Design the sequence.
């Protein structure tokens, strides 16, 4: 028995759109991406479970005609997990909106210090030669770098204080 091709394409589109939205910096788009992936997982479980059958009650019908209850239980579990993650992301986006007036995720101070350190190290795997040896749009200032490194608790040689 083959799966319905339309449902397989729908699962692929839901996963592709969800992953694309997860890679955005806005928490609202990440939330929509999580919801799309959750719906894609639920549809995938239903496609993989096979055709519909009779109720899985022993003694009520032929065993070959019964539907498998495991995919249905997995879908119910996935719905609950998606609901919990959605509630968490909604709360996080709302709090970010209250504090900053937007829900974009900002770069971490330590990430910026590591990026600047990698820019100076041409052997590093994160060095970007196509951008003229820089990964930032702004130039790196040694005074600003040392103050940010001190704020992050990193010493002059890169060890933690």
Sequence:
């Amino acid at each position: 028995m083959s799966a319905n091709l339309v449902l397989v394409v729908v699962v692929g589109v839901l996963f592709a759109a969800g992953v694309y939205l997860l890679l955005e910096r806005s928490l609202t788009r990440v939330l929509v991406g999580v919801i799309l992936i959750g719906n894609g997982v639920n549809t995938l479980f239903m496609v993989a479970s096979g055709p519909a059958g009779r109720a899985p009650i022993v003694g009520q019908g032929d065993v070959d005609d019964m539907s498998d209850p495991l995919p249905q239980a997995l879908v119910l579990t996935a719905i609950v997990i998606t609901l919990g993650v959605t509630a968490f992301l909604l709360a996080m986006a709302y709090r970010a909106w209250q504090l900053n007036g937007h829900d974009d995720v900002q770069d971490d101070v330590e990430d910026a210090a590591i990026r600047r350190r990698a820019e100076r190290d041409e052997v590093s795997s994160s060095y970007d030669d196509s951008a003229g040896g820089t990964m930032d749009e702004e130039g790196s200032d040694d005074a600003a770098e040392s103050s940010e490194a001190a704020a992050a608790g990193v010493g002059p040689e890169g060890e933690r204080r």
The chain has a mean pLDDT of 78. Residues 109-152 form one domain.
